[in-house]
Structure formats: C-alpha cells, structure tokens
C-alpha cells in the first residue's frame, strides 16, 4: 500500500493531506504544495487535475521543497500511485508515429537515447512489460512522462508536446 503526504509549506510545515490511492483532483485538500514525504510506493504527480500538465516521478523519500522533485512551481493537482511490478521490463521505441521506422527494444534503463537509438526523438512506443518514465533530457533530467503497459501511437499519447526524449528508466519497487 502506498502513502504520500503533501504539505502546503516548505520543510514539511503547514496544512497537510495524506493520500494512499489515485486522486484526480487534490485542489480541495490544499491550495499549494511545497514539500512532500513519500512513505511507501512510487508516485506520479501532475500539475493539473485529471492527470494533466507537468508530471513528476517520486519514490520513497523526503522532498523539502518543490525544487527537490524538479518542480516548476508549487502546483500539484492530481496524483497517481504506480502499481508494483515484479516481473521483467520491455519497451519498444520507434523513430516515427504508428510504430514505423527504426525500432529498438530495451529491457534496461537508457541514460542517453541518442547514443543508443541514434535519434533525439521518439515518436511512438509500445510498453510491453513494466512501468517506465521518459525524461526530456539525457541522464534523467527535464520533463517527465509516465508510461504503463500500453501502445502509444504518437508522443501526445503519453502527454508530451514534443517527441524529444533524452533518457528513460524503469520504475522499480524498492
């Protein structure tokens, strides 16, 4: 069972809200979010309600201010617990939409997409096993996008505004 605690102020101060499941709209529980404590599980946080806007991947730990989770501001309006996955991991990435063009399959994290794939952009992908996070920049930096097992025919299907993917990693249970 996952558990995350949101705090309105920095350093775990101010009004709090505890959550142990997906929540499509957190607005009624707090007006801003400046620190977070993840007690259990892996979570994706979203800047807007209904799992929209900037996404932030957090695992167990303490985040005393929004810069610690690479946040752009203090707005967290929805959250999703990433289900536990204890099996293998497999993802196929494609250079063009609708699973066309060059394809590569990965079972491990990829810190530098360009070095492995020879392209800067991923236009479609198929998550066959496990849960993954795409990062806009190499070495797991920049905007983040959560992908669960599914087909993503174009980059907008995973919530991106651009096909730029610099790195990606598996979501492990620790």
Account of the 3D structure:
Monomer. With 174 residues, the chain is mainly beta. Helix content is 3%, strand content 47%. A 4-stranded antiparallel β-sheet has the order 2-1-3-6, with no helix packed on it. Strands 9-8-10-13 form a 4-stranded antiparallel β-sheet, with no helix packed on it. A 3-stranded antiparallel β-sheet has the order 5-4-7, with no helix packed on it. A hairpin with a 3-residue loop joins strand 8 and strand 9. The two termini are 13 Å apart. The mean pLDDT is 94.
- Helical proportion? under 10%
Task: Give the strand line-up of the largest sheet.
Answer: 2-1-3-6
Compute the average pLDDT. 94
The secondary-structure class comes to: mainly beta
Tertiary shape: elongated
DSSP strand count: 14
One letter per element, helices H and strands E, the order comes to: EEEEEEEEEHEEEEE
Largest sheet: 4 strands, antiparallel
Distance between the termini: 13 Å
Low-confidence stretches: none
Rg (C-alpha, Å):
16 Å
Count of individual helical segments: 1
Tell me what portion of residues adopts beta-strand conformation: over 45%
Keywords:
174 residues; mainly beta; four-stranded antiparallel β-sheet; 1 helix; 14 strands; 3% helix; elongated; G_crystallin-like; Beta/gamma crystallin 'Greek key' domain-containing protein; eye lens protein; Beta/Gamma-Crystallin
